[in-house]
């Protein structure tokens, strides 16, 4: 395959680069995911709240790619937290995707004020031990939420998917994940394509390598060890974003990008985000 895997803490292989489908309408997801699969992507990142599990599932089925070569992630939405509700929501996601199992199931947000992420995760452990998901993990968990979770449950999350890009480098989380053997997966790895891809330092490195700014930012993530899931619905960009395994940044390039940290979020603060 085009994309090398990382090995999760339970031995499962996860492609280090995948395709994100947030904000892709259900009726466009089939085409976008289809284009991504043709371009060589094998990992797809969706979520119940994205409303496009059906379109995503159609593309997976139509692609002819053997199920074992795919890596499908979906996420449990906040309103479905709690043990029983989680089991029901998982069945619904699987049904929409048209799959018999997923590769990775994530708690989308901790919603700490609700106090339900531990019960939710216990349902995840059941789904995992029943073989209905090959790995379980979380998203948007701060180290304090992970500590509480790990203390109260048996399976260390395989992944924490968090907002991460050169303007928000998440040093504390990355360090904590590394200590615990949790893979760091970057959402909005391109900073949603705003501003970041016009930063002069990134443009200069792009020119030096004869690559695009998006490819440079993705390469920075990969060399740091992050899993990335860039999103695009534009076929040329979908292809461009996976053509990042035939060159490397040097230590100077990495240092110049790492100097861009501003600890600045685009998305919500996980400590307080409680949308249902
Ligand atoms: P992203 O950083 O992947 O940026 C996507 C945008 O960047 C595109 O809409 C396009 O405008 C632009 N872009 C993409 N490729 C480009 C290229 N080659 N050149 C120029 N511009 C380009 O942002 P995202 O969609 O927010 O994040 C990626 C994925 O992460 C999502 O689709 C979703 O799967 C996941 N995500 C998860 C959460 C979460 O809470 N867990 C939150 C947000 C996103």
From TrEMBL:
Pfam families, alphabetized: Aldo_ket_red
Protein family membership: Belongs to the aldo/keto reductase family.
Domain NADP-dependent oxidoreductase: 17-262
Keywords: NADP, Oxidoreductase
The protein's name: Aldo/keto reductase
Source domain of life: Bacteria
């Amino acid at each position: 395959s085009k994309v090398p895997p990382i090995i999760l803490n339970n031995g499962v292989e996860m492609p280090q680069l995948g395709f994100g489908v947030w904000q892709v309408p259900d009726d466009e997801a089939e085409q976008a995911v289809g284009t991504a699969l043709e371009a060589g992507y094998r990992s797809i990142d969706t979520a119940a709240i994205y409303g496009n599990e059906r379109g995503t599932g159609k593309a997976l089925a139509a692609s002819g790619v053997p199920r074992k070569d795919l890596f499908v992630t979906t996420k449990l939405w906040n309103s479905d937290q709690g043990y029983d509700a989680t089991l029901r929501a998982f069945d619904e996601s699987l049904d929409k995707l048209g799959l018999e199992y997923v590769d990775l199931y994530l708690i989308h947000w901790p919603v700490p004020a609700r106090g339900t992420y531990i019960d939710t995760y216990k349902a995840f452990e059941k789904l995992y031990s029943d073989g209905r998901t090959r790995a379980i993990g979380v998203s948007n968990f701060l180290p304090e939420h992970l500590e509480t979770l790990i203390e109260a449950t048996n399976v260390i999350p395989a992944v924490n998917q968090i907002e991460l890009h050169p303007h928000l480098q998440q040093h504390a989380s990355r360090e904590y994940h590394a200590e615990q053997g949790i893979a760091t997966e970057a959402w909005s790895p391109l900073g949603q394509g705003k501003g970041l891809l016009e930063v002069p330092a990134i443009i200069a490195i792009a020119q030096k390598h004869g690559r695009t700014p998006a490819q440079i930012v993705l390469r920075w993530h990969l060399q740091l060890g992050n899993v990335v899931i860039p999103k695009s619905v534009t076929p040329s960009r979908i292809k461009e974003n996976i053509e990042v395994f035939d060159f490397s940044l040097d230590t100077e390039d990495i240092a110049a990008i790492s100097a861009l940290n501003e600890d600045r979020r685009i998305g919500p603060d996980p400590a307080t985000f409680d949308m249902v």
